[in-house]
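Q: Structure tokens for this one, please.
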Amino acid sequence: MPDPRVFQAVVGKQGGWWNIWVPEIDQVTATRKSRKISGYTRSLIALVLDIPETSFRVEREVVSGVELERRFTAVVLESNAAGGN
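A: Here is the predicted structure, written as tokens:
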């Protein structure tokens, strides 16, 4: 059986919210409770890709809210410069 696909989740807290960005699917979600980060991340990936929540792994990187915003903004600007939406 092949190893499950691995997604990276970049997590940062800002203004009372835990923001969760999954770069591989270019999607963001958020929760006020840290204990819900894993579930929200898995649900987001499964919903966007229409795959079972048990079919992949998630590796989480916790950064500052400012760092999360910096990384996300850089990707958006790069995509726009390359002619993305």
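A few notes: The radius of gyration is 13 Å. Residues 5-81 form a domain with the Double Stranded RNA Binding Domain fold (CATH 3.30.160.250).
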